[in-house]
Each structure stands twice: as C-alpha cells, then as structure tokens.
Amino acid sequence: MGLVGLNGAQMLHQLLLDQGVEVMFGFPGGTVLPIFDALYETPIHFVLSRHEQGAIHMADGYARSTGRVGVVLATSGPGATNLVTGLATANMDSVPLVAITGQVRSSLMGNDAFQEADTRGITRPVTKHNSLVADVADLGRVIREAFYIARTGRPGPVLVDITVDAAAAVVGAPPDLEMDLPGYDPAIRINPAEISAAADAINAARRPVLMAGGGVIQARASKALGRLIVKADIPVTTTLMGLGSIDEQDRLALGMLGMHGTATANYAVQECDCLISIGARFDDRVTGRLETFAPHAKIVHVDIDPTSIGKNVSVDVGVLGDAKDVVNRLLPKIRKTTRRAWPKKIRDWRARHPLTYKRSGSIKPQEVIARLGELTDHDAIVATGVGQHQMWAAQYYRWRRPRQIVTSGGLGTMGFGVPAAIGAAIGNPRRTVIDIDGDGSFAMTMVEVLTAVRYDVPVKFIVLNNGYLGMVRQWQELFFDRRYSSVTTASPSFAGVAEAFGARGITVDSRRHLDGALRDALAHKGPVVVDVHVEAEENVYPMVAAGKGLHEMQLGKLA
C-alpha cells in the first residue's frame, strides 16, 4: 500500500501492519484522536483497558507469552506517565514492547500546555530507547527503528512520542523508511576462544550446575539447552525469569534458586565447582550475600548484554552472545559424560529437603497451586502478581515449558497479574490462562476484570486471600518482632465484585469445596474470579534473609 496521501495516523497503522502487529492495548485521549480515528480503517484488534498501566501490562503479558512485540497506545500527559511503571517492569525483564504516546502540538511544546509532559525525559531511564516525532516525514523511519530495537539484542521497551500535528499531517512525498542507527549494532560475533574456554571449564568440572535465566527463554534456546545438559549430565537450576527453560519433572531439574529457591538448588550452587550461567544477570535475589555465593565454582557467564557480564559477580569465563547460538557452538566441544557422585549428592538433598508444607485445618496456599498444576497437567500459562503467592507459584506449579510463567521479576510490580494474564490470553486464545494472585496485588488492578468481561477473555483469576500484604507481613514477623504495621487488607468479597463486573465469582473458605471450585472455574467458558480464603500467617520457605548466603537459608518448621 502506498503511503503518499495518507495522514500520519493512517501511515502509522500501515507501518504497524508491516511489522506484523495484530493487537494493540491502550486508552484514548485528545492528542491521539487521529490515531484512534484511523482504527476504523485497520484490521488491528484494539483492546481498551480501564487504565493505561493495565494496558501496558497487557501488552507485556502478550509479549512474554508469545515472543512477539507488545504494542500499547496512550495519550499525552497522564496517559503517558501512567505507562512508566509498565515500561520499567518490561525494561528490567527484557520484554520487547513498543509504546506509542501522543504529544501536544509542536508549537505548544514547552509552554505547559494542557496534558503536556516531557515524555521522553520522563521515560528515558526506563526504556531501551525513545524518540519524538514532530514531523510526519520521520514517522516511517522511527517506527521501523523502534520495532528493530525492541526485538533485537537484549530486548526491551521502546517509546515513540508523536505530536498531534504530525499524526494529522498528510504525507506529501514518499517517506524515508531507511533506519538510521549508527550507534546501535546488535549483531554479535561470537568469539571462538570464549566458546573453547567455556567448554574446557565444563569438561573439567566434577560438580557442575547450569543456571538458566530469562535469556534462555528470549533466545528460544530451551531445546538446545536440553541437548547440552543431557550430553554433559549437568543439573539445571533456573532464575524466576528462567522457569520453564527445563521441564521440572526432568531428573536434572533442581528448581528455582535464590531467596525462595529450593534447598536442593541452593545447596548445589554453593557446592558446585563450575557454575554455567546462561541468560541471567546474577540479581541479588538469586545470589544472596555476594561474598559467599558459589565459593568453590569457576563461573562461566553467557549473556547477550556485554554490560551484564561480570557486573555483579566476578566471572572466570565470559561469553558474549545469543544463548541459542552459544549453546549450539558449545555442543560439539562438550564431552559425553555420565556422573555418579554428584547426582547422588543432589538426590540426597532432594530427599532430605523437599518442598513441603504442614497441613492444618485452613486451606494452605501451596495446596491450591499444587492442585491447579495437577488439574491443568502443569501446562497452563500462569500470570502472577507479586508477593508470597508469586513465590509459591514459582515453587509449586511445576513448570513444563518456556513462556509459561508471566511474572514481574526485576521490578516486582504488584498488580501485574490481572492485566498480564488478559494480554497472555489474547495472545494465546487456545490455551488455558490463569492468574494466581494475592488479595493485595489483585486489588490494585482488579478493575481490569471488566476488560476481560468486555472482550470475553476467559482468564481464571485465583486469589489467595490471606487478609494481609503477605510478603511484607512475613518480614515483619521474622525481623520486626511481629509488629504488623499497615499490612492488613480488609478486602471486599472478590467473588461479589466479579459478579458485579459480569464475571463468574466463587468464594472458597473450606478445603472440601476447593477441588470442585477449581474444576468449575477451569471448565467455565468466560472469566472467573475464585476467592480462596487461605491460612493467614503462612510463610514462604525456604527463605534466605537479607545479608545471608544461599547455604544459610531458613527451611521453615518442617526442616
């Protein structure tokens, strides 16, 4: 389709179609009216959220679960500033997004016009890149650059701010579509010497552990990773972002490591003689006290971002490259190995310290998640909010495949689960999508259940309702003498709210009703909110306290 004669808004939609965009999320306003008017002429499906933060989390959930670029559209001023938390969330977790915001007329910029904000300045710290388009002649080039930057190298969010006059202007001559990014070259030439050094370290190891991060998921490297670990007989632990890199029913799977990781994973990392990290950045929630982290290990760090290698942990071998490319180059250099002593030690840890909890008269949150896993054959896409429920989900769902968990890792954004689940369900219409949430996190964005109802998105919202901001309460119990300051939630009937919104609502306050309620929710054709009243003061274990090493984890009352 020719672009000459279109206005900027019509051109924008054509450019989005050229990039393969099928769905957008957002909220209208004055400066984006030309863009919304052009929606009448495009096949792109637009999802109207109830809040811009909800819209960008939907785009994020869509992107994480599909691997495609998520797109969000918002107006100037408060519309743009309401995207900031979502941009920071995506930036921390390397999620490819393109955010398009409206801006006031070029002649008014800098005059404190109505709904004017310095969107570029505000969002620069939380985006991979951002641009201002004040001339329609620049629009084609900038949009193509935005998608290219968002999806290449270490993925991330890119923002394009478009003035209302640029959106309304008519394209009078063939626009320049050639990208101009002289300072950006994501093509990585893998160093053969680094591959050889990494292979030598792996082949020499007697007690290796591989740590898979979110980069394995982003690079679609899970199958290649599976071949590597089988050939070298290496047990695998994952970060929160790396869950699903390996089927957790595999004999080599150790589960998640870190602050709330499995005892087996944490002990294995502390005693390994070679730690191979692929696509992870050694976040503080993973390492615990840095001075005591993996003290006996030669560390091999594979990452696509050169600034991540050696940033938090000193490494012996750094390999710069895409996770899939690096693993495929490593494979021919790795010796076929069968280990005996190391797997036996891991089996002993697993037998002595399984993930478990003490049953009582109240419903335990862990049993809700474990039962959800069983009922869905551990194959649903699961979004979460942030808090205790997030960690229990990570521990007990038993992940089978990549892009199955949709959760805010680096930023820890409460309220993420509800809209992210909606975005994931829109991107995966034939899959079961569940939001496992806490009462505090759910309440932050539960208005987006209205969006699920409006578009008939059949998300199952499972609220683990303990009446507290649970993770904060747990810290107050353990480290602040049970001084519970501002952590009780006093929530409404979430099932009643769901019914008022037009969704199905179910309340569960007895174990004997739990199984039936979960089955009913999963069988229902539309959105369902299941409000499960769980043990109020249950804690997440294992737990590595601040300033402690992974080997100093608290194992809980059953240890």
UniProtKB/TrEMBL annotation:
Domain Thiamine pyrophosphate enzyme central: where? Answer: 195-330
Share an example GO biological-process annotation for this protein. Answer: isoleucine biosynthetic process
Q: Keywords of this protein's UniProt record, alphabetized?
A: Amino-acid biosynthesis, Branched-chain amino acid biosynthesis, Magnesium, Metal-binding, Thiamine pyrophosphate, Transferase
Family annotation (Gene3D superfamilies): 3.40.50.970, TPP-binding domain
Give the enzyme's EC designation. 2.2.1.6
Q: Which family does it belong to?
A: Belongs to the TPP enzyme family.
- Thiamine pyrophosphate enzyme N-terminal TPP-binding domain sequence ranges: 7-119
Entries under InterPro entries matching the protein: Acetolactate_synth_lsu (IPR012846), AHAS_TPP (IPR039368), DHS-like_NAD/FAD-binding_dom (IPR029035), THDP-binding (IPR029061), Thiamin_PyroP_enz_cen_dom (IPR012000), Thiamin_PyroP_enz_TPP-bd_dom (IPR012001), TPP-bd_CS (IPR000399), TPP_enz (IPR045229)
First-level EC class: transferase
Question: Per its record, how is this protein called by name?
Answer: acetolactate synthase
GO molecular function annotation: acetolactate synthase activity; flavin adenine dinucleotide binding; magnesium ion binding; thiamine pyrophosphate binding
Per its Swiss-Prot or TrEMBL entry, what cofactor is needed? Answer: Mg(2+); thiamine diphosphate
